[in-house]
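Sample entry follows:

:::
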Amino acid sequence: MLLIGEKIHIISPKVKEALAARDGAFFVELARKQRAAGAHALDLNIGPQKKAGPEVMDWLVEVVTEAVPGMTLSFDTTNLAAIEAGLKKLPAGTGAIINSTSAEEERLAAVPPLAARYGAKLIALTMAKEGIPVSADARVSIALEKLIPRAQEVGIPMTDLIIDPLVLTVSGCQEYVPQCIEAVRMLKMVADPPPMVNVGLSNVSNAVPAHMRPLINRVYMVMLMAVGVDAAILDPLDDDLMAAIRIVQQRDASTPLGALYLKLHDAVAAGAELDPADVDMRDPAQLEVWKTVQVLLNKVIYTDSYLRL
């Protein structure tokens, strides 16, 4: 599975400050930490950067590629000129991902040809002009009717197309959280050949108290892995998250919590639900996972105090 480090993101005040100051040492350290933690690629989210975008991306790519040579970079901005500047700056042999296009006409017209021209992978969001669809069926329809045909039209191989069915936050959009899981499942079943599927994992815990976010993220990740997700933009510096991914990939049931993750994974993969008999409710860590699963499946209403109920 492709793990894309999310830590170079303009939404972070420290990143924003370092970018404004052109503090190369800050980004060198952040890039190296993410690679050491297990990231396979790095997302460079510089925001819209309407005026300075190309210069900012050019500088950032130079700094990051010197820090982690050969590492795949994901260009995350709506500024196409900035994306192209980053693609041009990449050393030979360095992989590239464009993050992202949507199914909106103007984005479909401009972004896929750019990816095809530079041989970059393309993340394509199941979002149309009307916004993000509610149901899994509608998201999959956008992929099948608009995103995949456009990629084929401009010559992007299916191996380079990454569909993103859009993770929404459990705080405020709870009813849509299970729909993303089902959208991943359907994309892997109905498309031939199936596309790669990516998620922006941390979106599920947006607007959730900071101390609760890692738990929600890692439980959701286990559930998404069960339905075949191929890539995730995530925090590789979250040790517990990376441990959960390793447990699933290696089928490591050597600890009670690890065994529970695997039971959750297998239940979701089978289209079933985790059996409460498989959970030791006396174990606080297992009880937290159980409660979080119920919230992520929209069976218990999310509140900031759900773990204490």
